[in-house]
Specification:
With about 200 residues, the protein is an all-alpha fold. It has one domain (about 1-190). The chain has helices at about 1-15, 20-30, 45-50, 50-75, 80-85, 90-105, 120-130, 130-150, 150-170, 175-190, 190-199. The longest helix has 24 residues, at about 50-75. It is globular, with a radius of gyration of 17 Å. The relative contact order is 0.12.
Length: about 200
């Protein structure tokens, strides 16, 4: 049983690792996004180089799905027998799955353990597991972006506020460590952006 659980999380990691930004840039424009703009495979760089429609939108949509699909599969009970014989999969299992999706997105083995910055995939997880907190995060992102015109700061504001609001809607629990882990990875992947802004 432990082997099956490990295999499940490996599949979740590999799903999160799919570099959709790179795939769509090659399919639509026959170019490698990792050599253009900031070199990042995420929505911001893809949209900056090729425009939001259709490549940026498709990248955003699929990166969000990376976080959503494993959670839907678990919530529907397809793999509940792996984790809990008596009922639905626990919140801790769901949040761990989300964390692993974000980890895969940010450190993809298909890109020599490089990847995106995790914002869209984290949003997908938060949207499904804590929609009210995610909504507050979206509002924080929009307000920050309108005022500051800086995507990286707006993204961090949105993710941080989402995390802070989680305990307001859900009881304290182990899951918060996995949620905080997502935010930590997002922060780590924005290190260069923050350094540039400070300079």
């Amino acid at each position: 049983m432990i082997e099956l659980i490990i295999l499940f999380y490996i599949v979740v990691f590999l799903l999160g690792s799919i570099p959709f930004g790179l795939i769509f840039s090659r399919v639509f424009y026959q170019r490698d996004i990792t050599g253009l703009g900031s070199g990042n495979i995420g929505t911001t760089n893809v949209s900056r180089v090729f425009g939001f429609w259709p490549v940026g939108f498709l990248t955003l949509f699929c990166d969000v799905l990376k976080g959503v699909i494993p959670l839907i599969v678990l919530k529907l009970g397809f793999f509940s027998f792996l984790f809990d014989y008596d009922g639905p999969v626990s919140e801790n299992v769901l949040w761990l799955s989300g964390f692993i999706s974000v980890l895969g997105h940010c450190y993809s083995p298909f890109l020599r353990f490089q990847g995106g910055k995790g914002v869209a995939t984290s949003f997908g997880c938060f949207l499904l597991l804590s929609p009210w907190a995610a909504l507050i995060g979206i509002i924080a992102y929009v307000v920050s972006f309108v005022r500051l015109k800086t995507g990286s700061i707006a993204s961090l504001m949105g993710v941080f506020l989402t995390l802070i609001c989680l305990p307001l809607f859900y009881p304290l629990g182990l899951y918060l460590w996995f949620a905080a882990g997502m935010v930590f990875i997002v922060l780590l992947r924005h290190e260069k952006n923050l350094d540039d802004l400070l300079k």
